[in-house]
Write a structure and sequence with these properties.
The chain is α/β, with parallel strands linked by helices and 356 residues long. The chain folds into three domains: 1-53, no CATH class; 54-250, Dna Topoisomerase Vi A Subunit, Chain: A, domain 2 (3-Layer(aba) Sandwich), CATH 3.40.1360; 258-355, no CATH class. The protein contains 16 helices and eleven strands. The protein has helices at 6-20, 27-41, 72-75, 90-101, 114-125, 138-145, 158-163, 168-171, 181-190, 213-218, 223-228, 234-248, 284-302, 311-328, 330-344, 347-355; strands spanning 4-5, 50-51, 57-60, 63-66, 81-85, 104-107, 129-133, 173-174, 219-220, 251-252, 305-306. The strands form four sheets. It has a five-stranded mixed sheet, with helices on both faces. The longest helix has 19 residues, at 284-302. The radius of gyration is 27 Å and the shape is elongated.
């Protein structure tokens, strides 16, 4: 599907209106028209091939992937937990710690895009735990408020600052705009979104009842400023995030972060012969049959894990368990010996010996 951004559509309309000598439309007006047209078609803008701006990106297991209409279904399966983070550089700093415990992070690039919202919904259905982090300012609170009401906002806020032992007056900077204060005031005082031209007009939402409006009128705290206080100690900051996630979600499905190996490479190469490692693929099916019961048991164990695991250590332990099952199987040794004989009798290997 060929995508067009809302900006592209806007510029094309501007050119057309100029040629016709008509009054130029605003971007907001064009967005409203496109949204109305999509609604009449019974589809989202994304399904019609129109994106509203720069896409979000998901980081998981050392890789970045663009959150697109076609990728949402697969990305929703990544990570025991998915943290949506407003600031672009934060996932880069915390990536290695997220990898250790199987957490995914989404860089929202300053706003919660349509694709980002769809990813939240898809990940929840797929069994993932979701949380959102933004700057502690009116814009950040609004971004967090655009996520579904049951998605926890874990910072930056006064709770985060207190738990990290930080004085907000030491990390604050002046507010650059107060245009969203009326919106935030309604969220805080009424636990609902303002009625008007808003995504969730009038909807109940009590996540922001403790936001200090008077503070946000004059000042704000950026995630970057908080993270800077942990220069060289970034893992301590990430530990706060993990603790918060454990508090919110005591158990998690580690099948979302660990793939149970379907092919086991035997450490004792004498059983097959070090020179025959590549033909191991031929016995994958047999290995799968022998380890199937243990693999199903492991999958069941991973389904409901308390707290967090160290993914690398757990994966190593899983491999050891599956290798032991193979080694203990009375038929496996005979199978491997027959396989070795078959490989060694192959003309290719006989020619190899002659050439040497």
């Amino acid at each position: 599907m060929k995508m067009k951004t809302l900006n592209t559509i806007w510029y094309l309309m501007l050119e057309t209106f100029e040629l016709l000598g008509k009054k130029l439309p605003t971007r907001a007006y064009v967005k409203q028209l496109v949204g109305k047209w999509a609604e009449e078609q019974g589809k989202t803008r994304a399904q019609l091939g129109i994106i509203t701006g720069v896409r979000a990106e998901l980081y998981f297991d050392g890789e970045w992937t663009s959150v697109s209409f076609d990728s949402i279904k697969e990305l929703a399966k990544d990570g025991t937990d998915i943290i949506f983070i407003e600031k672009e550089g934060v996932p880069d700093v915390l990536g290695e710690y997220a990898d250790k415990c199987g957490i995914a992070m989404v860089n929202t690039r300053g706003k919660l895009t349509e694709y980002g919202k769809e990813l939240i919904d898809a990940a929840k259905i797929a069994g993932g735990h979701i949380a959102i982090m933004t700057d502690y300012d009116a814009a950040g609170v609004k971004i967090a408020s655009e996520s579904p009401r049951k998605i926890p906002w874990i910072g930056a806020n006064d709770d985060m600052l207190r738990d990290l032992g930080l004085d907000r007056n030491e990390v604050k900077v002046s507010t650059t705009s107060d245009s969203l204060i009326p919106y935030i005031t309604c969220l805080v005082e009424n636990s609902s979104h303002p009625v008007g031209n808003y995504v969730k007009s009038g909807e109940y939402d009590d996540r922001f009842k403790d936001v200090d409006i008077e503070f946000l009128k004059e000042d704000r705290v950026e995630l970057d400023s908080i993270l800077a206080r942990f220069d060289g100690k970034e893992e301590e900051f990430f530990d706060y995030i993990k603790d918060k996630l454990k508090e919110l979600y005591p158990t998690r499905d580690y099948n979302r972060a660990i793939d149970i190996p379907s092919t086991i490479v035997i450490e004792d190469k004498q059983k097959i012969g070090a020179e025959h490692e590549e033909p191991l693929e031929i016995i994958t099916e047999r290995v799968g049959e022998i380890t199937k019961k243990e693999s199903e048991l492991i999958e069941k164990e991973l389904k409901d894990v308390e707290g967090f695991l160290v993914v690398e250590d757990k994966l190593k332990a899983i491999k050891e368990r599956l290798v032991k099952v193979l080694n203990d199987d009375p038929n496996y040794k005979d199978f491997v010996e027959e396989f070795n004989e078959l490989v060694e009798s192959h003309p290719f290997f006989e020619n190899q010996e002659d050439s040497s």
